Structures are given as structure tokens and as C-alpha cells.
TrEMBL record:
<dbReference type="InterPro" id="IPR034660">
    <property type="entry name" value="DinB/YfiT-like"/>
</dbReference>
<dbReference type="InterPro" id="IPR017519">
    <property type="entry name" value="CHP03085"/>
</dbReference>
<dbReference type="InterPro" id="IPR017517">
    <property type="entry name" value="Maleyloyr_isom"/>
</dbReference>
<protein>
    <submittedName>
        <fullName>TIGR03085 family protein</fullName>
    </submittedName>
</protein>
């Protein structure tokens, strides 16, 4: 089983266990909303534009609400559990595109619940996450208000944000750096060092792809 499929399955297990009304780290979304988003992402490509383009956001939101209207929560989770669209046909594409997507959304659900703790990840998944973080840092941190130096515990450095001015060092395991760079700064187990004002600005910034 690929890590994308493993994270997908684990996410769906948590969604089934928590039910439709549990909180997530996605602002304004509960678990029902997140399940609908994931189904839309894979099975309604016509509505994906609104995820990134504000002018299309209204249509995307209507399609997402329509999915909730047409599908009971357990049915939506069942659709998430089975890769849809091209991802169901091409496991290699699923692995390339969905490993981080499913990991982050799995953590969005886990970390919104009380008393969560970071998971111990297989070394190859940790390494894969760091590879994606280190190569994508410039993109994920393009809106950072200050320069960022990512330090991975166990080895590795990546840079993002403005090239000049104040810099903040962010230190943690690869998975925690990923959550930070994906805009979940308050729920990432990392250490920030540098100018306190710059660090505060970075914590509050809108990050991610």
C-alpha cells in the first residue's frame, strides 16, 4: 500500500469514528465539510477552480453543499475512501499528488481534537515529506512576511519567504514543518527562534499552496 492510500484509509477511519460534526483545523469546516471537499476535489474537477480562485469560490461552495445534501455523511466518507477520478485509475499519480494532501487533512482532523499527539511516522514517509517540503518551501512560504529558515531535526535546511530582512528559524521534524508551511502554524510542534515580533508575524501569516 502506498503512503497516499494508507493516509487516506487512516483519515477515513477517523472520520467514521468522529462523525459528521467534529471540528477540523480547516477554518469553518467540520468533518462533514471536509469529506465533501475531498469528494469534490477528486470527482468534481469542474468545481475545483474555486479552491484557488476567489471569483469561482461561490460555485465551488454550492457544489460542496450539494454533495452534502445528496450524500449522507457515511456515504461521503465511503467515496473518500475509494480514490476517485484519475487517482482511482493511476495509483502512481495518486501517490504523487495525494500523499501530502491526505496526510495534512488526516492531521487537520486529529489535531482539532483534544489531547492529540504527533504520530511516529515510518522513516520513508518522514523522508518523503521532507523532500516535498524542501523542494516546495519557496512556494508554500511565498506569502511569509519574513524570511524563513526551516531546520529539520535529523538533518536538512530549506529557505523560504523574502530573501532580505528579518529571518525566523523554524525547527522541527519533517511532518511538523509540513503542517507549519501548510498554514497550520498554531498546531505544529516546532520551535521558532529569531526576532520575537518577526516570529509573531510569521505565526499569524497565511501560508500554504
Amino acid at each position: 500500500m502506498t503512503h497516499a492510500r494508507g493516509e487516506r484509509s487512516a483519515l477515513c477511519d477517523v472520520l467514521d469514528r468522529l462523525g459528521p460534526d467534529a471540528p477540523t483545523l480547516c477554518t469553518g469546516w467540520n468533518t462533514y465539510d471536509l469529506a465533501a471537499h475531498l469528494v469534490l476535489r477528486e470527482r468534481r474537477p469542474d468545481a475545483m477552480g474555486g479552491v484557488a480562485i476567489s471569483a469561482l469560490a461561490g460555485y465551488t461552495a454550492r457544489v460542496q453543499e450539494g454533495l452534502k445534501t445528496r450524500h449522507p455523511y457515511p456515504e461521503l466518507v465511503g467515496l473518500v475512501r475509494r480514490p476517485g477520478g484519475v487517482y482511482g485509475l493511476l495509483p502512481a499519480l495518486d501517490a504523487a499528488v495525494n500523499t501530502l494532501e491526505m496526510f495534512v487533512h488526516h492531521e487537520d482532523v486529529r489535531r482539532a481534537q483534544p489531547s492529540w499527539e504527533p504520530r511516529e511516522l515510518p522513516p520513508d514517509l518522514e523522508q518523503l515529506i521532507w523532500k516535498r517540503v524542501s523542494t516546495g518551501a519557496r512556494l508554500m512560504l511565498r506569502r511569509a512576511p519574513v524570511g524563513v529558515v526551516l531546520h529539520r531535526l535529523g538533518g536538512g535546511v530549506a529557505l523560504g519567504g523574502p530573501r532580505g530582512g528579518a529571518k525566523v528559524e523554524v525547527t522541527g521534524r519533517a511532518a511538523e514543518l509540513l503542517m507549519f508551511c501548510f498554514g497550520r502554524q498554531r498546531h505544529a510542534r516546532v520551535e521558532l527562534t529569531g526576532d520575537p515580533h518577526a516570529a509573531d508575524r510569521l505565526r499569524e501569516a497565511t501560508l500554504g499552496v
